[in-house]
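How it folds:
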Amino acid sequence: MIDLQIEPTRISPFIMLDSANGLIELKGKSTPENSIQLYHPVINKIKELFANVQGEIQVNVSLEYFNTSSSKCIFDMLRTLKGMQSSERSVHINWYYEEDDEDMLETGEDYEDILGLPFSYIPIEY
C-alpha cells in the first residue's frame, strides 16, 4: 500500500513512500524555488510512517538533475533515515545516475561518505 505519492511536475520529482514494503522513491528533476516546502513534509511523513518498519528501508534515488536547495533537502532526508537505523532497521540507498554524469555519481559518493549509509551505484541510460 502506497502511503504517499506525489506526481512529478516540470520542476519537482515523483516521490513515493511505501512503508509496508519499506520503500522510498525519488525520480525525475528537482528544481523547485522552495525545496523546503516540498521536502520537509515528506521528511515528516518518513519519520511518521517508517518509525515502526522492521528490516530494510530501500531508497531509490533516480534524479536527472537537482538544484542546490534540493540537494540540501535530499541530504536532510537521508540524514533522517540514517538516524532511524537500529538493530531491527537498516537503510540502503540505490543511487541511479546517467552513465556519463560524473557530477551525479560524485554527489552520491559524497552523501555516502558523509552519512555512512550503504549506497549501490547503478548506471542508467536516459
